[in-house]
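Here we describe the complex-level prediction in full. Unlike the single-chain runs in Section 2.1, the two entities below were treated as one system.
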Amino acid sequence: MERLLLPSIPEYHRIDVYEAHGGYAMLRKALGMNPAEIISEVKASNLRGRGGACFPTGLKWSFMPRDSAKPTYLCVNGDESEPGTFKDRQIFECNPHQLIEGTIIACFAMGINVAYLYVRGEYKHWIDLVQKAVDDAYARGYIGRDILGSGFSMEFTVHRGAGAYICGEESSLMNSIEGERGYPRVKPPFPAQNGLWGCPTTINNVETITNVPVILRLGAEAYTKIGAARHPGPILVGVSGHVNKPGVYEMPTGVPLLEIITAYAGGVPGNKKIKAVIPGGSSTMILRGEALEGVCMDAESLKAAGSSVGTAGVIVMDEDTDLVKVLWRITKFYHHESCGQCTPCREGTGWMEKILKRFVEYNATQADIALLNEVANNIEGNTICALGDAAAWPVQSMIRTFREEFERRVRA
Amino acid sequence: MDTSQDRNVLTDANLQRIEQLKTRYQNPQSVLLEALWMWQGEHGWISEEGMRYVGTLLGTSYHHVLGVVTFYTMFNRKPVGRHKLELCTNVSCMLRNSERVLKHIENRLQIKTGETTSDDRFTLVEAECLGSCGTAPVMQVGDRYYENLDEAKVDTILGELK
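The structure predicted for the assembly as a whole is:
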């Protein structure tokens, strides 16, 4: 398949190379369209957000008011901090102009004049690369006043974070742009009514936005024929852990997980058996190695398998992996990253970490298994944002799927 | 010579940059993270004086700035060594032996994680996922990522960082 998000064209990150291969032609096309028509096209494409929630992008765009008295905003989410996820970084490095082109088109479609690209603070090197691309796009008149003589104007600002997983949550991200601590906000009101500085705001993931020029180029109908019917399009899958060739691979949605691990990522070193796979970043439910047959990389297939596509960060663990230790490390992360607003998450994540440490040290009791599960159950659904769920799911799923790993560590 | 390091202020170039950035947001407070980055870039860490100074620049209180500085993990609230080594030990790096690499650095530098060498050359800390899982284990030093680490590679890197 032709690569649509990360084309294998040398120097594609440079604006002249991007233009030479048809770059910014979709912006020209979009500026000649009716904005409502663009939103209809994105709706018809069935593009679903690539940041983890799989929400239909066109539908999200349609929530934005057309006649807002207040300014409206687009925030592009490049916080990329879910463990196992490293795909947006490839876009920053290899295809920043398609991200920028998609951002301008999205703004035009929703009648937005100001976009912020929020990038995690650690990615300073990649922020510099994207900023260079933004400067070049300004210089060629793709961003700024009266873009290509269309009468449409927009400003594009790259905003650097400073180390906080929670800022990938959309309302935290807005608070962070406002110069606040990255605390999630209570919803409703939803961002399309009350977002950045209380104004209507849409937040889309970097990879989602990078799909927009593709949809305009191929047309919605052709786009829906790529990959899985109910979750179509190209997807960037990051494979890490025990594989011979870890990395980010572009593929259509719906590729079998086993094919991703063996054909794309070169299989498991030493031909060891796969003990477990986390399919979509650390918060998604763990799958047993023996249960991977027929499971595909798309929202519906992974849901049926009891997990989710998340950020498509596939973490592979071979037969020698200490899964309890893996879970302890993941839980330690959520404890560290809990913003502290909600008691169940702030206290519960720390409590789970302590219990898991006892299992790691073979010092847990039989009752600790039930206790761990109970703490997780009391976090899930009881917090302002999804970080609480993200911390609870790996614990719940590990106990359900690999109970024997806990049983054999109970002290006699 | 620029003496801002001793003067508890930002350079004129950075002050100008802050004024430009203010125009890109509804509220000057939005420039806070960037202004703190500038302060850390110039002074190495963020002191109470720095927080008060930045707060005054952006029309926000010291206690607000303190709340922000303590929320985000990348701001240093005390002096660190010339090179802050931030090794990821999260799951993808752990599966590729980051623990062994961490122990190796501790032994080489004769410090524990969280400490600074007596010559102020290195500070070693554990990092959460750095978004480099395909080239694990990874370590961030300043703005740079060092990827696919093993003991030998770490030795070379430590030798190069003067």
